[in-house]
Design goal:
Blueprint (H helix, E strand, L loop, with lengths): L1 H10 L13 E5 L3 E4 L4 E4 L2 E4 L16 E6 L2 H4 L9 H8 L3 E5 L10 H11 L3 E8 L15 H15 L1 H10 L1 H12 L8 H17 L3 E6 L3 H6 L6 H11 L4 E4 L25 H11 L3
Helix pairs in contact: 1-6, 3-11, 4-8, 8-10
Length: 296
Amino acid sequence: LAALELAVRFACPWIQLQEIDKRLFAKASEEAGFEWMPGARGLAHGVEVEIDETGCRAMDGPSEYDEAWLILGDSVAFGIGVPVEKTFAGLAQSAHPDVKLWNAAVIGMYAKGYPEAARRMFAVDPKIRRVTLVYCLNDIPYGTPWSSGGVEPVLSTLNRTFRTRSKLYRLIAGLAGHGVVQYFLGDYARYRNIEERAEQVFAPIAEAAAIAAHNGAAFEVILMPYEPQLRAQKPEYWSPQESVNAYLVARGITVRDARTWFGDDPAEAHRYYLFGDPLHFNASGHEVVYRRWLAK
């Protein structure tokens, strides 16, 4: 097994261990999720990341500017597993050197964390004139998937251990594809009867929109797809995004559904995502997001 592990590490550098340096985080709450430690450095899925003093992902940008854009979101908007210059935010910054981009997305942040992130960043930079919130289905707090004890928590712990330490395990799991689908189905299930909890779940997004409007900034939400949604092309799989869209549009919030951004061939959906990952884009996926996000 050790020889196979070494062989995979040598032959498949694109397979990333799903480990995040805990020193990057300042604190976490059950409802809002995680926050970054300003000034921290560490590895996230094999990529060195730096958090600046404002709590945003550090990247090159202008020191003097008249306009700034703010990105809110979780690990997808942050660009986990992708060097900062190849993320959609980094590409946009390179293409717009006169605009300052702040990527305030945090790995593991939930929707309830977005209003406070918006308030904090408008206090940091009153020149923010555009706010883009990248919404993923896992922006609802998870809670505990199993009550206590039993085999499933043990299996979950083993899975977490192996995927952070073994590229051989990641290769086998990725090729099998079962975990990718199961992850999506787990998030999909949490949107059943979501209309009954819509105000509780989605109100923080509307609050973030109100904060942007109060500060004179445009606000938009991008609904990101999971790889199994693109691959399966089952109409019922899109009901979670449709529920979010209905709530926000009814409140006058601009929503962009990104399901059409990644071509028409379901068999090619995996080309835009990290290996064996249901929701995080690779560099190719980020390039698509960048082009479609700023398309006129």
